[in-house]
Specification:
2% of the residues lie in helices and 35% in strands. The chain contains 2 helices and 37 strands. The two termini are 31 Å apart. The protein folds into 4 domains: 260 residues; 67 residues; 99 residues; 82 residues.
Length: 539
């Protein structure tokens, strides 16, 4: 935990300082009530990207009427960590093996799913239910080694072949299927918005090199041998970073399974209920996908401990139910965790966010703050740590988990800790599939001096910044550095074009404050072949 104070400044000077906070966002002018600005940087297709949101709010004497809940609907172009997985063990294998023996045994739905673990080359995926894999092992694998099986068909081809003026893409290990139609194609000669348009065979599909242009477009160059040493075509072709809803649309969807935590109980606080061996999800429970089948299910108590030691998995599902391999726990569990974090999930406790605030800080909260009647601002910052579903910190934390969430971001301080949550969905501030970050309980009233007309300031400013990759704790790295191969927290999809961030500031009763929800300036994602751009949408 890192926390620092910037000292005392006058209210007027602090409002000026808010125009250039640490995130370099242009904040609203002094006198504005409940306004926000946002910035995404960089704003280039297929790149890692950070998000910053700064808000300025007016405070009133009635604490219950002040901002105590903050909701951010991210740009529609943004992809936060997504994807779920399960684990399995493999028997001993020699270096260079192209088949593994899995326990439990694979099923047909596992074909095309990426795997990772000791001795597994990056980009390896399953090519047959018998255990064949797309790339030979890079080292000997000991018996009973645990590996991760992703619940997605997004995969990397190292043997893709294509030619100029031809829509065909072939790959001896491609294991193409009808479900690949609509998946994005990138790498080699394929530019923005390319997608699979037809399934021909397990080794061949047709690709439209640009779905936004009328007619079927062909690549302008052939796939090439990237290393010029290994025989065969070696362009790295990525299948399925995005799935388009139609042959010409830029609207995206996902059918991947994804790890999430569902609060048990009645709506709106609860996302679902458990009875018999079935979890029934309400409208706020996040729904299900076909890729949920086979995922493990864990149940948690209010203190974060396991409800029991029973190992459950998803046997079948409908759009609103999950049928498990064993009955619900006898204990009164508070949450159900579906899936485990995949290889692209940030690690628990990974530093990936910061909160910067400038308020008239109450000395009842921090003894070093001056008296409230001084009418001065104190500035401070707190880091945020990512926790995956199943690892949420519950004890002594302001902000109970949402009905449905895919991550907890914990802001620990010596005085009070508070948490926000990430979720994915098609409802809320934005239309269509998007990611949201929600602070269910922002301790504004707790930390701010009571408002006395004519004596204390009525402004508060806060800036949230989410990094594109996290800061690893081991080995120690300089602040702001991510380790090589660190999973990406936030990236930009293959989709280009403009979208906006929406921010809602709400009071303790859940009602929007004046001017909320707020739509900030739009941000246009440029193709990765365009002139580089550092960021946009700064208000």
């Amino acid at each position: 935990m890192r926390r620092r104070f910037f000292g005392k400044v006058s209210a007027a000077a602090a409002l000026v300082a808010l125009s250039v906070p640490v995130s370099l966002i242009a904040a609203p002018p002094a006198g504005a009530a409940n306004t926000c600005a946002a910035q995404m940087s960089p704003n280039i297709q297929n790149g890692q990207s950070a998000l910053s949101v700064a808000c300025l709010t007016d405070l009133v004497a009635a604490a219950a009427s002040n901002a105590s809940r903050l909701e951010i609907g991210d740009f529609s172009n943004a992809i936060w960590h997504r994807g779920s997985a399960r684990t399995a063990t493999v028997a001993a294998a020699a270096s260079g093996d192209t088949a593994l023996v899995f326990t439990p045994a694979l099923v047909a739905a596992d074909v095309g799913r990426p795997i990772s673990g000791a001795g597994i080359q990056g980009g390896t995926f399953i090519t047959t239910a018998a255990g064949a894999i797309s790339r030979p092992t890079s080292a000997a694998i000991p018996a009973s080694t645990v590996i991760t099986i992703e619940h997605t068909r997004s995969r990397v081809l190292f043997d893709g072949a294509c030619v100029v003026a031809n829509t065909t893409l072939t790959s001896p290990t491609g294991v193409f299927a009808t479900g690949d139609v609509g998946l994005s194609v990138s790498g080699g000669p394929y530019g923005p918005n390319a997608r699979v348009t037809a399934f021909l065979s397990a080794t061949t599909v047709t690709v439209d090199a640009n779905g936004t242009v009328a007619g079927t477009q062909v690549p302008s160059a052939a796939c090439t041998d990237a290393d010029a040493v290994t025989p065969g075509v070696q362009d790295v072709i990525i299948i399925g970073a995005t799935k388009y809803t139609s042959a010409t649309s830029l609207t995206t969807t996902y059918s991947d399974g994804y790890t999430r935590q569902v609060a048990l109980g009645a709506a709106p606080a609860g996302g679902g209920t458990c009875a018999g061996s079935t979890i029934t999800l309400n409208s706020g429970g996040g729904g299900t996908t076909t890729s949920d089948v086979g995922l493990p299910v864990f149940f948690k108590m209010a203190d974060g401990s396991d409800a029991d030691a029973t190992v459950r998995k998803v046997n079948s599902r409908t759009s609103t139910t999950i049928v498990m391999s064993a009955a619900c726990p006898a204990a009164a569990a508070t949450d159900a965790v579906i899936g485990v974090g995949g290889a692209n999930a940030p690690r628990d406790g990974a530093v990936m966010a910061s909160l910067v605030a400038q308020i008239n800080l109450s000395p009842l909260l921090v003894a070093t703050a001056d008296d409230c009647n001084k009418n001065t601002y104190e500035g401070f910052s707190v880091i945020g740590k990512w926790n995956n579903p199943g690892s949420y910190v519950r004890t002594g934390v302001l902000g109970a988990p949402l009905a449905f969430s895919t991550a907890q971001i914990l802001f620990p301080t010596a005085v009070v800790s508070f948490a926000g949550y990430v979720n994915k969905g098609t409802t809320g501030l934005q239309t269509g599939l998007h990611n949201e970050f929600i602070f269910p309980t922002l301790p504004t009233a707790l930390s701010t001096c009571p408002i006395v007309a004519g004596t204390t300031t009525t402004k508060a400013g806060v800036t949230l910044k989410f990094a594109s990759t996290f800061v690893t704790a081991t080995p120690a790295l300089p602040t702001g550095a991510g380790a090589p191969n660190s999973p990406t927290v936030r990236a930009i999809s293959t989709k280009t074009g403009s979208s906006t961030v929406k921010v809602a500031l709400k009071n303790s009763a859940g009602a929007n404050l004046a001017g909320s929800p707020i739509t900030v300036a739009g941000c246009t994602i440029v193709a990765n072949t365009a002139t580089p751009a550092n960021g946009c949408g700064d208000g």
